[in-house]
C-alpha cells in the first residue's frame, strides 16, 4: 500500500516510530537542533547572552550551548551589542570566516538599528547594513527568554530553509 | 608648606579650587611644572583629558601619588584655533595613549610625542575633533 505523505502529520508519524523523509530534511532537522554560536560579544547584550547560557535559563536544553571559539566551527553569530564603525570590519571578517550554512542573530536594539547611539558619529546603524540578518531580537537588552525564543525561531528557519528568504535591508 | 604647593607657587600657578586641589598653569610653564611635580612625589598620571570652552581648549592633568594622600588637578589653557602643548609621555608613559585620545577628540597637538596618531575614532571623523562643541553630528539614522 502506497502511503501518501500529505495524509499524515509528520509529528504523528514520529510518535509511531515511522520516519518518512528525504536526506536533506533530516540533515536540516539535525542542524536546527545543534546550532553552534560563535563566542563573540560586543556590548552589554553579551552579558545577557552569557546569562542565557547559565543554569537559570540553560540554553543547553535546546542544544545551542556549544559556543565555539573559532568561527570556522560555528553556525550562528549573535551580534550582541553596539557595532562601532571601528568594529564593523572585524564583525564582517568573523562572519565571512564562518562555514556555510551560517545564520546571524541581531540581538538588541543596537544590532538592529543602532539603538540609542544611532546619532553618534561612531556607530553603525544596524548589523543588516553590511551583513544578512536572519533573526531580530528587540530589547535593550533583550531578556534571556527573548534570546531563547529567537533561537527557536532560527530553529524553524534552519529546519525549513525553503520557506524563508534572507534579506539585506537595502534589498 | 607642603612640597608641591611650593613647586606650584614657583611656577605661578593660580588656585581654582582649594578642596579638589585644582590649579591653573600657563602653557609655557606647564611641562616644567609637571616634571617638578613628578620629582615631588606625583609619580602617577591617572587621567589626561581636555575641555572645550568657547574661547579656549583646556587640557587637564590628574596627578596622584603612591605616597601622598593627595590628588592634584592641573589645568592648562590652550589656544582654541591651534591648540598645542608639550607632551608629558617622557614623564609618565600612561600619557601616551591618553594624549593620542585628546588628539583624536579635541585636535590638541602634543609636541615631542613619540607617535601622535589617531587611535580611537573612525576614519571619517579623523581630524574633525568630534568632542568639540562645534562638531556637527551627521547622523546615519535610517
Structure at a glance:
The complex is a heterodimer of chains A (171) and B (142). Chain A has 171 residues and is mainly α.
Note down, in words, how this protein is organized.
The complex is a heterodimer of chains A (171) and B (142). Chain A is mainly alpha-helical. Chain A is 34% helix and 8% strand. Chain A contains six helices and three strands. Chain A has helices spanning 10-15, 23-32, 44-53, 88-97, 108-113, 144-159; strands at 76-80, 103-107, 135-137. Chain A has a three-stranded parallel sheet with strand order 1-2-3, with helices on both faces. In chain A, helix 2 (23-32) runs antiparallel to helix 6 (144-159). The radius of gyration of chain A is 18 Å and the shape is elongated. The mean pLDDT of chain A is 85. Chain B has a five-stranded mixed sheet, with helices on one face. A two-stranded parallel sheet of chain B has the order 6-7. Chain B has three helices and seven strands, in the order H-E-E-H-E-E-E-E-H-E. Chain B has helices at 3-10, 27-39, 95-106, and strands spanning 14-17, 22-25, 44-52, 56-64, 71-79, 84-86, 109-111. Chain B is of the alpha/beta class. The radius of gyration of chain B is 16 Å and the shape is elongated. The interface between A and B is medium-sized, with 16 and 13 residues.
